[in-house]
Protein 1
Amino acid sequence: MTYNLGDIKTDMSLIRGIKNIAARVEADEAKFSNTDYVKAEWFGLKDKQSANVQFLQALDESDPSYSEKNGLGAMAVEHNHPTLWRNKALCTFEDEGRCYGCEMDAKAPKTGWKQKTKLYINVLADYGDGEPKVQVLSSGMGKGQVAPVLLDIVGAEPDEDEDPVALTTVKFKITRQGAGLQNTAYLLTQKGTTKADPEAHELFDLDKVLRHVPYGEQEAFYNRGAVATEEGEKELVTTGATSSEEEW
């Protein structure tokens, strides 16, 4: 449901009524949805579900299947708000010398603000229920995730006695096992090769899929969706939206 921003009714810093709260959340969201940001379609599986996948990007230019047109998958260093999990952006410490997420992690360690490294890469996903579609697969580096297995298959330093893996020519099957964030694992298996042309598809621009938020705007960005209560404390409010990307 869409609300006109002019319909928001406030009493000083308090926002009352679900319509007004939802409108405030939408206003906060719109503030950071600049013209450069692109909303991607994310790869995601349910418990015991599988999909056949062709990676449409290589991980290094030395890959025999590297395509200048499609570019490379990328590792991103990010922060998530520990409660408002949709509020996620790239860490800016290396670029700007400061980062709100890093500051919050230093102030309150082990609360969920620490840096997270994730792989982002375009894939052609076939769930067996229609035409295959281009999606962005994101994966953390923890046990049971796709990224560590994929990096092991590709190899940072290929064996001299073996030909380097041409990633976009390999057929993969990914199977999810488990339903919770803490007890979920993904099985990545090779299923032969494919001659399907990865350049035949329009990919999502990873530079525009990921959030680049300048330091001066980060506190407002990470805390968007929070409204004041009558006790003067912040109450974290979400609209109930979900994202399959967050399962990875």
Protein 2
Amino acid sequence: MKPMAKSIVFLMPVPFTHHHAKRYGLSLLEDKGIMPHVIDLSYLVHGKVFSQVYEGDPLKKTMVHQVRFFSEFENLVKELSQDAVFVDYLVGLSGIDIKYEKIFRILKKYHARYYVVSDADLPNSFAQQGVSKQSFLLKYSSIFNIRWLGRYIGRIILRVLVKHEIFYSLPLKVFGTDSENMKNYMRKYDNGRMVRVGINSSDHSSYLEYVNNTTEYQRQMEDTCVFLDENAIYSYDYDILKMKKIDSTRYLNAMNRLFQDIEQKTGLEVVIAAHPLSHYEKYPDAFDGRRIIKGKTVELVARSRLVVLHYSTAVSYAVLFNKPLLFVKTDDMVWAKRTNYIDAIAAELGVSAVNIDNKEQLEELTFHLKGFPVERFSKYKYKYLVTREVEDRFTWDIIAEELKKEAPYHPMQIIERET
């Protein structure tokens, strides 16, 4: 019996929190004899965003290595690569780009093996035909923008180098569902040696855990409407993506008007399922005194009668529990160019997104508490959330099983693979 890889190393572009530790199955991995490590690259790749003390809920353990310089990262890769498999949470199915290419050059230098794990896939803005055409025109109208053209050519060159493993290595295995993003990735990079492994989304694992540990009585519905908060006004994601920030007062006023309308028309209580990285304890009146609950999103959705959201991976729970959905956006979101993704996921599920700052749309809004597009929900489930062959399995059980098959690094194995 060949010895397995003894450790796994998560490459993180943001601070690693207790939420991440649960999502990535750290306890499960440890129980199976696999030592997890985290390399926190947040300052190295997003220095301006994380140059100050992070106010989140970072996991402070010896397994978390915060690096500020490439030399520190290189030393860690050299030390860990012999008996570890790295997990790329930097670029994933987007593929290596200019911003991160040095990190992957260092991985190649020390023959570090890595996985791509796509466990939170969503439809992108190209899912809609109209958006796709618009993006196509924007792409080619930018051809005279020298900076854009340089980046575009650079991406093409990188893609060729990665596919032929020149300066960079391809992932040892790619984990995910049968989404368009996965298909595009395989079309771009598969050189005949890539191994793809079907898994379920991390939200599906949370769904399984909840269903397996509760009775039907505990899952009985309540007269609630759940808002899937995405930390729209406080998240560092928008700083990383260099997106325009929206006005917090206007946003909260619009959302609270909507919630009041829902409560008056349906009799449901609107409850806020707070984003895991939100800090509403600092803003307890943000939603006009409505209950704000963190860490119980799956339970709140399971027992609700209606789900309201913008664009969140937690839409998975609404799909898995077959809940009526209401996608909403505001004028500020349209101005900040955040709505393509909202429209894309809504279209994929066969519903429309409502601009709640548009008085006509808001007045015409009706709340359907029964029924949902069954076929569209099922199609979405098996495209983004579930792999049929392993539908009843937890994601990190599958990945841990694959890890056990990986032999420790040996120079001759690398030579054989490269020849």
